[in-house]
Each structure stands twice: as structure tokens, then as C-alpha cells.
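ugh ok fine here u go
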Amino acid sequence: MTTKKIIATLIAVLLLLTGCQKSDNDLAKFHEFVQQFEENNRTIKEKTDELNLIFKDVLEIYPDSLKVLISGLDTTLTEDEVQILENMIAKEQDASLKTQLQQILKLEREIDAANTEIQKLRQVLPMPVVVERGQSHYQLCMDYLTSNHDLSREEARKLIEKTGLFEPLVENFYVWHYYHGEVFGSFVTQGEALISPMQVYRRSKEQARQQLEAAMAKRDSAIFISEQLQKMKSELESELTNTQESLQITQGKMDSLKALQKRIERDMNSLHYYIDTKKSMENAGYLDGGFLRKTKIKGFPEDEMFMAMDLRKNNTIVLEASKFGMNSFKKVVVYPKSIKMGVDYKITYNPDKTIVSMIIKKGHRFRQNKILIAIE
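structure:
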């Protein structure tokens, strides 16, 4: 970007932030400047990574000179440091090494140019919010509008509903807010995070696709069962016109049908759970974990080893330490971890921890699912 274009850009941003232009075009321009900031930030990261690879190759040949340059790369190189590098390039006879030194100088100048643009944009752009673990885009927007502009929560909610929110946020993302008059916008960039918003979006989209396929598979299974039941019902209704003997046979089949319907309804509304000590589950190959590795499900026991709880009738699993040969419970963990404690369920202990209760808060997260309850 030329000096004239940079000056024009900064003037446009100043006009934007002082309220000289009051339209949706201001928001679009603000977004454009945020993207320029992020592009320069990304350029610095990419060029710095490339520099580090080159330094590894040539540091042994020019240890003293390159150490001086490395310390200067965090800021703009001085004229003396540039002169050192140019002298190294002029004296070098090895064509390959000379090319690497020239690349160092080229990359440093590109990083310097990107840093210069970022510093100019920082003078006029508001500081972004650096995302912390567990924060949501909606809540950050709400906090900004209510705290920085004294809007009521209802006024803020109406503005946020018109804004494209990005979820889930990742720690160290940047969130930029713009508000002027009745125009509000909020944008998410990679910032200091190791993953980009686009990568997060693709992962979320893939997870959603997998969940949809699983739901469709369950739906198809339910349709098949329903068709089979309807077929059985039609056959039974036809047999009712037969002799008394046939009627008795039919009655038996209808009883079996009702029992089957009840079992199906119970299974479709039941949680299946398996309880054992964490160590036993690891030894059996159901759980996998270790030092500095999160414990996760490796496999499930056979179906007949699971207990079932009809969530239409009950929502609490009660465990007694004495039944497991324990004096008290130290810890109870539920797997998979995608089911969140405090959100989907909660764990409560009696005062001496001899009895623990797992209370289901969101039944739909557990229906037709299997869980492992590991006790310690």
C-alpha cells in the first residue's frame, strides 16, 4: 500500500470513528480496515516463521552477525543492522547461501512494512477484545453495548439479533466492535490464536454434518420399526375374522405386539449406563488415558452389561460406596466428556461421600445413548 493510500485510509477511519459518516457504509469500511489489520498480522506471522527456518540453515556460518539481526527483528532494523546484512550478501561467494541472505533482508523489509501499517491502524482503530476461554460472541457484544454505550439489555439484544455472530470462539481470537447511531457490527479475526475462524467454522460444519447423518440414521431406523409394527397390526386385524382358535392365537400375538411396543418405547426413552471403577475400565480397555493425556472412551462393554433407566419415569442414578467395596467416593466421572457436567447433568454427594447421585438435567442428551460412570 502506498503512503498516499495509507494516509487516505487513516483519514477515512478517523471520519468513521468520529461519526462524520452515519450509514451502513461506515460499518463496511470498518470491517475492511479490520481485515487489513488481520492481513498484516498474518503476514508478520508467516514471514517470521519463514525467517526462522532460514536462520536455522545459516546461523552456524554467521553466528555473531545473525544473532545481532535476530535480536533486531522484533522491531525495525537499524541502518547499521541493514548495512551488516548487505555487507554479508556482497561478500558471500556461495550462490545458495547468498540467496538465503537476500531472502532474510527481503522478509525483514516485508515484516517491517506490515508492522508499520499495523501501528498506523492501531492509532485509529479501537482495541479489539482478546477472547478468553469460555467466552461467547453474544456475551461480548452484550457487555460492549451495555457497558461502553449504556444501552439497556433489551436495546442491545435487538441490535445483536441483526448481527452475524460467530460461535464457538477460540481463546486469543480478536473480537472487534463498531457502534454508531443505530448501526452495530462485530467481527472475529484470528488475532493471537493458533487456528483461524475459517478452520473453526469448517470443523463445526463437519461436526454438524456428522450429527445430522447420525440423526437421519436414527430416523430411518424408527421409520423401519414403525413400518414393521404397522405390518404386524394389519396381519393381526386380518386374523381377527378367523375361528376362535385363530382368535386366541391372534390375542397372543397382540399381547406380544404390545409388549414389543412397550420395549421399543422404553428403549427409545432410556439411558444405558455402565458403572465400574476407573482402573477396572482402563484394564478392560473401555477407557484410555495417561500422563498428560485426557482420558477418553476407547470401547464399550457388551450390551448386556449395561443397565437401563427409563427417563420418562426417573432422572436420578444413585450409587452407594458400600456396594462397590468402598468406604466413600473420591470422584465420579461420566464419559463421554461431550456430555457436560453442570449443563446436561449434575453430581451431588451426601456429607460423608458414601452416597452419590447423578441427576439428569437434559433428558434429550441421554435418550438412546450409552455412558460410562467411572468411580474412584
